[in-house]
Amino acid sequence: MYFSNLLLTGLAVLAGTSAARFPLTNGITKNTAENKMKSKLLSKAKPLSRRLEDGDDADAEVAIDLTGYSIVFEKCQYVKFYNVGDEDNGGNDEDGGSVLSTNKFVIFKLCNSNSCSSGCNYDYAEYVVDMDTYVAALIEMKQESVENTCGTCQENCQLDDDAAQYSSDCQTCMDTCDSYDNLEENGYGDASEYTECQQAANDDDANAYYTGAYCSNDGSQISIGVFSDENCSSRVSGKSAATMAGLSGFSDHILSATYSSDCISCLVENDDEDQADDYEPETAETCQELYDAAGKCESPTSFAGGYLSYYSSQASNEDDICNFISSLDSGTYDQSGEIVIGDGGVSYRSGGSGATGGQKFFLTVLILGTIGLAGYAAMLHQQITGGSTDGLGKQGGALA
Predict the structure, then answer these.
(1) Which of 100, 145, 175, 260 has the most crowded CB, counting CB atoms within 10 A?
(2) Does the pLDDT at position 294 exceed 60?
């Protein structure tokens, strides 16, 4: 019950996880049962906004300065929960639908950029957000970075009449950008274009398969896999998503940004050297949107930025969010999203449960004891209703 309540609370406070915050050009999600359940939970949550509290200027917005921070991916994690009674989800299992829905989350940090590369050990905070939202945001950011880099490369690396060849730096960037442009010609695909859960192929028109993004077993990587269901929650081992797409393989030059351990700065760089003196630091749009969308755990680490000092309902959610993040990060759930209790204890699984040797021993003793008590009760019943009646008859005859 504790974990169920914790999960529901964690989902409810993620008020900003609506994918509408990002233009999901990759079609990250469909109108699935999972999203319907999230919508119901999130609709009951208090929205996190940048408005000041009642009593202050209601039209004023709090400017959150994240220019001194960097995003760091921590892990992705699946979480399953029951949808009993939700007919839209097949929660009643009347048509063979599963009563479990799989939610996918990403935990990330905002770290002070001065300490980010050395371990992010002060002035940082943890956040949790829907995996599809995180993936869409980081893909968009990386795509813009690649486009800018290759545009600058082509602009600055033009051969003139006196130059026989490119400099080493120019040659490297030109080769890299050419390889991006020629992926399809070389039989490869951009993995970031396959994060949407979509039907991939049919096996002799009997089994439908789907491709989409998934977490690795340890939560350290996001890859493209093959699934047996249209929600991309039941992965099929031994099948290649690239092969399903008719490709020799995938390039993760964009997708790798979604699970990279590198520090991704939230500072928008100034590209105009002529305006360097007048430039005011700006927070990258992706950082701001991800921050707004995520559940926040800021106070335990003395995070200097954020809404906490402005927005009291943020503080009221802190314990729930921090506990939820802790449960995701501490092995409460296995790689498929199911609850695991103890290191070697009971693991709750759909369709059954496991027990330790000690638990099995006590269960056996309990069963044998119950059988013994049942036998003894039967013997007493026979004596009272059978044998005792004969005795009373004899006593009655003697008295007569």
Answers:
(1) 100
(2) yes
Bin 27: left if φ > 0, else alpha if -120 < ψ < 50, else beta. Answer: left
* Contacts of 227 by beta carbon, 8 Å cutoff, 6+ apart: 197, 209, 210, 211, 212, 214, 233, 234, 235, 236
Break the chain into its structural domains and give their ranges.
Answer: 2-159+167-178+262-353, 364-400
| Predicted pLDDT of residue 381 | 74
Distance CA 119, CA 137 (A): 24
Q: What is the pLDDT of residue 364?
A: 63
Task: Give the list of residues 6+ apart from residue 50 with CB closer than 8 angstroms, or none.
Answer: 61, 62, 64, 292, 307
pLDDT bin (cut points 50, 70, 90) of residue 297 is: very high
Q: List 69's β-bridge partners, or say none.
A: 112
Helix axes 312-329, 2-13, angle to 10 degrees: 130
DSSP-derived secondary structure letter, 239? -
Judged by average pLDDT, the poorest of 22-26, 271-275, 374-378 is 22-26
Query: What would the two tokens of residue 400 be?
Result: 């007569």
Q: Tell me what pLDDT residue 257 has.
A: 96
What span, in angstroms and rounded, lies between the C-alpha atoms of 128 and 76? 9
The pLDDT of residue 271 = 65
Task: Name, in order, each residue with C-beta under 8 angstroms of 17's C-beta and a sequence gap of 6 or more.
Answer: 38, 42, 129, 130, 133, 293, 294
Residue with the bigger pLDDT between 384 and 264: it is 264
More confident residue, 274 or 29: 274
Helical residues (DSSP H) of the chain, grouped into ranges:
2-13, 33-43, 113-116, 131-156, 168-181, 241-244, 285-293, 312-329, 357-382, 388-399
Q: What is the pLDDT of residue 112?
A: 94
- Spatial CA neighbour of 68 closest among 300, 297, 263: 263
Please determine, for residue 317, whether its predicted confidence score (pLDDT) is greater than 70: yes
Q: Tell me the three state secondary structure of residue 110.
A: strand
Residue type (1 letter), 56: D
Token pair, residue 94, equals: 């009347």
What are the structure tokens assigned to 17, written together? 């996880």
Question: Residue 107's CB: how many other CB atoms inside 10 A?
Answer: 24
Whole-number Å distance between alpha carbons of 3 and 24: 31
